[in-house]
Structures are given as structure tokens and as C-alpha cells.
Write a sequence for this structure.
């Protein structure tokens, strides 16, 4: 336990140092993180205004708040391990990680937490500025605020485990970019990134709620926005827990198979 | 050696380097189609709630998506690979070899690398554009067509010069591998007419990172939205940027002192 704690501290330091080394990349990356929800915010506000000020249960102001909160939730839950993993395997870096007495996922968790604690404050400031610029309206009731916290943390845990499992595809194929693209396609339409789920076609809504995508981004966003009833919020958190359990099992299984299939390439 | 022969030789080298991986062809087709499907599905969702977006009809937005895919393909086919290669070769010193060649170094840099698979995107973008043109049909006159082609070309020159200026920074800063991605992340915003955006973003996408000239402006010409002022500004900007990028390149060359080798 103590060694695990030390590993986290060490990874925090390494990530911190790396991020300050690559400041410019960080800024460029964050521009992208802001721009995509911003574009959808503007497009949907335009459509909503042309439609008499609302679409479904979303007023123009609600669209603005939705996409700003979505930007923050997405920032909180996203990972980049599936872009990294193929490189680690191809170059043989995974071999070093396997020699360590702890599971390699721990250094990724620590890396993720540290970089978020640098990017999130910056993005929060941007979110506030955008909120003021686009006249976002947000009223948070105590119960949505309280339930939002477990909803958000579960969303992070779920997305992390799923995307870490997805990254394991690199054990079997080097064409991970195609697989990642399929994943992001599904994520875009089923997680609520392109539009709030409730205005999408019914079939898409059902698929989104059965699959895990919505529970990693859209659900916490709509929860904070007050678009989810209290019963639905509890059910949602239940679904998140079920998916989390499935994700843990899936990860263990895929990891075990992957390591067996792994033959170090590179150094 | 003529310019075209050089291009042909480099192009062949690039093709030979890629066709060895035959399955890449199918993977790239799949990825291009998926990207296109994503854009079209997004469009379909939005137009299920409205007939026009900021005054743009679906067929006009379709033309914009076509130009977006087409120009995006051209950038990643002909512009970005050479510039990325330049940045890398300045850092590891292999740029020395480019300098020893008898042709102009900027020319060699610009045509030595091609993103072969982007031809798929160029074709897809072109096909989409044709579909949009058929739908727009009679509303396009001869003058608009000429303006459209002129603005496409102008946009390409602006983007090329912009990329060259960014890449030339490598002569001073050396470690600028990620600088080209700044364009890529902003280019996403070009899928919609920039006239939708608030002024600060619109100006940013026009004059700081010239995405608008590559996407919105040509389609504005096509759909008869362009005034002569924008046309003139685009043309002047293209000439000025092209000249400035050349001057900047020469300055950069003077500053270059082979780092390794």
C-alpha cells in the first residue's frame, strides 16, 4: 500500500514536469477541447433561436449551459491512453511496465489525475467567461449538486476503465486509429456530445441508455442542469455502478488475454 | 529538371512507399467514409429541426462540407506532410541534405512528401461538392463558378503560406513539432459557416488562423454571398502572405546552422 502511494506521488511529479515541458502542446490541445463544444453551442443556439427560442425541453439558454457543462464534464472524464498504448507496445515500453510489481494502470490513473488538476482550473475559467459571453442560465438545486458529485466520479471511473480496456486492442492490432475512430463516432452521437440526448431520435436515445456512452458524459451533464428527475438520477447512478462492475470484469479479462498475446516488439 | 518532373518523381517515391501496405488502402477508405458519415449525420440531425442555419440552406451547407473535406484532404495530401518533415529535419539536422540539392530548398520541402491516402478524402469531398451543386442547380451562374474556383485557389495559397510560416519557425525554435496541429484543431470549426460565430471567433478564424478563407469564403462565392470587398481582401492577403512567407523562409535559412550532422 505504501509503495503504491509512493508510485502515485512519483507519477504526479513526473506528469507535472512533463506538462510544463510541453506547455505549447497543452495550450493547443486545450483549444481543441474548448472549440468542439463551443461550435455545437453556437450551432444549436442558432437553430433554437430560429425555432422560436427552444427545441424540446431545451431553451437557447439551456443549450448554452448544456454545452459549457458538457465541456467541463468531458474534460473531467476524458483519457488519452488509447492514443498512447500502441506506441508503448510497438516500442517495447510496456515491457518495462510489466517488470514493475504494480499493475501498469496505476501510473495511468495518477497521470490522468495530475494533468486534470492542471487543465481543469484553466478550463473552468474559460467556462465562466463563455457562460458570461453567451448568457448561460444555470440554477442548481441542492439535490442536483449533491447527486452530481457521485455521478461525475462514477462517470470518470467508468470512462477510464472502458477506454483503458479499449487501449488493450493494441495487443492484437496496430491499426488502433481506426478502432479509436469508431469509438469516437459512437461517443459523439451516443454520449450527448453532439446534442442533448432528449432531442435525438428515440432509437438513438434507447441505444445510448443501454450502452455505457451516455453514462460517461451526458448523464452527469444533464444531472447538474436539472434535466433529470430525482428518481431517474438514482436509477442512473445505479446503471453507472452496474456498468462499472462490467467494465472491471472486462478489463481484467482483456488484460489477461492481452498480456498472454504480447510478445515484446522493439528494444 | 522541370518542376512537374520533380513533383512526379517525388509523388512516385511516396506511392511506392505506401502501396507496400495494401491493407492500409481499405483501412483508410473506411476511416474517410466514417469521418464523412459523422459529418453528414451531424448535419442531418441539425436540419431535422430547421430549414436553414443562419440563412444557409441544407444544399449550401452540403457544399460547405464538401469543400471542407476536399480542402482538408488537399492540406493533408500536399501541404502538411512536407511541412512536418521540414520541422523534423531541422531538428535532427537532416535538412542539410535538402540544402545540398541543386533545386530551391522551399520547393523541395513543399513537394517531397505527400499524404497519399488523402486522395480518398479529396475524391469524397469532390463527390459531395458535385451532389451539392446538382441540388443547388440553376442558382449558380458562370461568374459564381469562376469566383468559386478563384477563391478555392486563393484559399489554398493562404493556407500554404500560413503553414510555411509556422514551419519556418523551426529554424529559430527547433522544437515546434506540435505547432501544425493548431491549424488542425481550428479547422474543425470550418465545417460550419463562420458567419454563425460571434465576431471575436469569426475574426480569429479569418485573420489569425485563416480557416475561413479555405472553407466559408469559396462557398460564399458559389452561393452568391460574396461581396467584392471580401474577394479583394482574400486576393491581396494571398499575395501578401505568399510573399511574406518567402521572405520569412529566406530569413530562416540564413539562421539555420545544421544542428547535428
Amino acid at each position: 500500500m505504501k509503495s503504491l502511494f509512493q508510485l502515485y506521488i512519483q507519477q504526479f511529479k513526473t506528469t507535472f514536469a512533463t506538462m510544463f515541458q510541453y506547455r505549447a502542446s497543452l495550450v493547443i490541445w486545450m483549444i481543441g477541447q474548448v472549440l468542439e463544444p463551443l461550435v455545437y453551442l453556437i450551432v444549436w443556439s442558432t437553430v433554437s433561436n430560429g425555432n422560436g427560442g427552444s427545441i424540446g425541453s431545451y431553451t437557447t439558454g439551456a443549450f448554452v449551459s448544456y454545452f459549457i457543462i458538457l465541456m467541463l464534464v468531458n474534460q473531467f472524464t476524458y483519457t488519452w491512453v488509447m492514443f498512447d498504448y500502441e506506441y508503448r507496445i510497438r516500442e517495447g515500453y510496456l515491457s518495462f511496465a510489466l517488470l514493475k510489481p504494480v499493475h501498469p494502470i496505476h501510473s495511468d490513473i495518477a497521470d490522468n489525475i495530475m494533468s486534470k488538476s492542471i487543465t481543469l482550473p484553466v478550463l473552468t475559467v474559460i467556462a465562466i467567461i463563455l457562460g458570461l459571453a453567451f448568457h448561460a442560465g444555470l440554477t442548481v438545486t441542492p439535490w442536483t449538486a449533491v447527486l452530481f458529485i457521485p455521478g461525475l466520479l462514477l462517470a470518470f471511473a467508468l470512462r477510464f476503465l472502458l477506454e483503458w480496456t479499449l487501449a488493450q486492442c493494441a495487443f492484437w492490432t496496430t491499426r488502433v486509429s481506426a478502432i479509436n475512430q469508431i469509438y469516437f463516432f459512437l461517443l459523439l452521437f451516443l454520449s450527448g456530445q453532439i446534442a442533448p440526448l432528449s432531442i435525438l431520435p428515440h432509437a438513438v436515445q434507447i441505444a445510448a441508455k443501454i450502452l455505457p456512452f451516455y453514462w460517461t458524459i451526458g448523464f452527469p451533464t444533464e444531472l447538474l442542469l436539472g434535466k433529470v428527475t430525482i428518481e431517474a438520477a438514482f436509477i442512473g447512478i445505479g446503471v453507472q455502478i452496474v456498468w462499472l462492475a462490467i467494465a472491471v470484469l472486462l478489463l481484467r479479462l482483456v488484460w489477461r488475454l492481452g498480456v498472454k498475446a504480447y510478445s515484446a516488439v522493439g528494444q | 529538371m522541370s518542376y512537374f518532373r520533380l513533383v512526379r518523381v517525388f509523388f512516385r517515391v511516396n506511392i511506392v512507399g505506401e502501396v507496400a501496405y495494401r491493407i492500409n488502402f481499405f483501412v483508410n477508405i473506411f476511416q474517410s467514409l466514417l469521418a464523412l458519415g459523422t459529418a453528414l449525420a451531424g448535419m442531418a440531425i441539425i436540419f431535422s429541426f430547421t430549414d436553414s442555419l443562419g440563412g444557409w440552406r441544407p444544399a449550401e451547407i452540403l457544399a460547405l462540407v464538401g469543400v471542407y473535406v476536399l480542402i482538408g484532404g488537399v492540406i493533408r495530401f500536399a501541404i502538411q506532410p512536407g511541412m512536418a518533415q521540414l520541422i523534423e529535419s531541422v531538428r535532427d539536422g537532416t535538412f542539410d541534405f535538402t540544402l545540398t540539392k541543386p533545386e530551391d530548398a522551399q520547393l523541395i520541402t513543399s513537394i517531397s512528401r505527400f499524404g497519399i491516402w488523402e486522395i480518398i478524402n479529396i475524391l469524397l469531398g469532390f463527390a459531395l461538392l458535385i451532389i451539392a451543386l446538382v441540388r443547388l442547380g440553376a442558382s449558380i451562374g458562370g461568374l459564381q463558378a469562376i469566383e468559386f474556383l478563384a477563391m478555392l485557389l486563393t484559399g489554398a495559397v493562404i493556407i500554404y503560406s500560413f503553414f510555411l510560416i509556422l514551419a519556418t519557425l523551426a529554424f529559430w525554435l527547433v522544437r515546434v513539432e506540435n505547432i501544425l496541429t493548431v491549424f488542425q484543431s481550428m479547422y474543425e470549426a470550418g465545417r460550419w459557416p463562420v458567419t454563425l460565430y460571434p465576431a471575436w471567433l469569426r475574426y480569429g478564424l479569418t485573420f489569425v488562423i485563416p480557416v475561413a478563407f479555405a472553407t466559408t469564403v469559396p462557398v460564399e462565392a458559389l452561393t452568391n454571398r460574396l461581396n467584392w470587398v471580401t474577394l479583394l481582401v482574400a486576393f491581396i492577403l494571398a499575395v501578401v502572405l505568399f510573399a511574406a512567407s518567402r521572405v520569412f523562409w529566406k530569413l530562416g535559412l540564413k539562421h539555420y546552422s545544421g544542428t547535428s550532422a
